[in-house]
Amino acid sequence: MTKHITCTIIFFLLSLLIINPAYSYEDIHNSYDKLLKKVVSDGLVNYNLLITNQQILNNYLKRLYRIKKEEYEKWDANDKLAFLINLYNAATLKLIIDNYPVKSIKEIGGIFSSPWKKKFITLFGKKVSLDFLEHQVIRKEFHEPRIHFALVCASKGCPPLRNEAYKGELLDNQLSEQTKQYLSSPRGLIIDKKKKLAYLAAIFKWYKEDFEDLIGFIKKYSGVDISNYKIKWLKYDWSLNEK
Q1: H or E stretch including 222?
Q2: Is the pLDDT of residue 113 over 90?
Q3: Are 168 and 79 in contact (CB under 8 A)?
Q4: Residue 13: is it exposed, middle or buried by C-beta count within 10 angstroms (0-12/13-18/19+)?
Q5: What integer pLDDT is reported at residue 109 of this predicted model?
């Protein structure tokens, strides 16, 4: 009987390790990665399909919500930033499907409220908003201008939602690809050579302080030198990034 009880206890403890493994960074984003490959194409989201698979998204977010600050602090900078970008984008998807159907994320909330100020995300045991996550955590901690082409506000004017999760070991290439892709599209940059006009996405105006050398940044990621061009701002398309 004693041997049987001992074996039972050992089995129980092993099962706990399987169900609640230490959060290995290598596999934490795998379910989200598979989900994005399923519901995102050409930067647009099949929200109806996402709704039918929402339990995967919910479970992924719950897993991220359980990450403790002391564990996060053990990761390197790229792993930290990838985690925060994925959290932001996954939470935005959750916000949309919880209020679907909507024509724009801006419809969520009321006259005196904003979807970006709604505290529905758990970060290190604290309820925070999308605004807090972006401005008080990501921008403040990392000073990385390319994040503006990875964080997606569920709108067609945004950079496209990548159909894979961000991961630390891939992050630098992923951020560069996102930036180049956005600047090669008409929602990011339009050049009128005859009139010497450069039409830029409003993102560059809203976050001007994040781009220390805007002209140099544009040239680096688009190959276009707009130093002798007058800059005008493109109208932002807030319609839902729906497929």
Answers
A1: helix 214-222
A2: no
A3: yes
A4: exposed
A5: 79
Please tell me the pTM assigned to this model.
0.89
AA letter at 192:
D
Do 151 and 179 meet the contact criterion of CB atoms below 8 Å apart? no
Q: Tell which residue, 197, 227, 199, 230, has the closest CA to residue 214.
A: 227
Residue 104: C-alpha distances to residues 99, 123, 125, 216 (Å) = 10, 25, 29, 33
**In this predicted structure, what is the pLDDT of residue 112?**
66
Contact present, 64 and 166 (Cβ < 8 Å): no
What's the one-letter identity of residue 139? R
176-182-185 Cα angle (round to 5): 140
pLDDT digit string, tens, across residues 68-101? 999 999 999 999 999 999 999 999 999 999 999 9
What is the sign, positive or negative, of the torsion defined by CA atoms of 204, 210, 215, 221? negative
Contact 138, 151 (CB under 8 A): yes
User: What residues contact 162, with CB distance under 8 A and at least 6 apart?
Assistant: 36, 40, 43, 150, 174, 178
Over residues 214-227, mean pLDDT: 98
User: Of how many residues is the chain composed?
Assistant: 243
Q: Rounded distance, CA 69 to CA 73, Å?
A: 6
Helix-helix angle 171-183:214-222, to 10 degrees = 90
pLDDT digits (tens, 9 = 90+) for 40-51: 999 999 999 999
Pairing of strands 197-200, 230-233: parallel
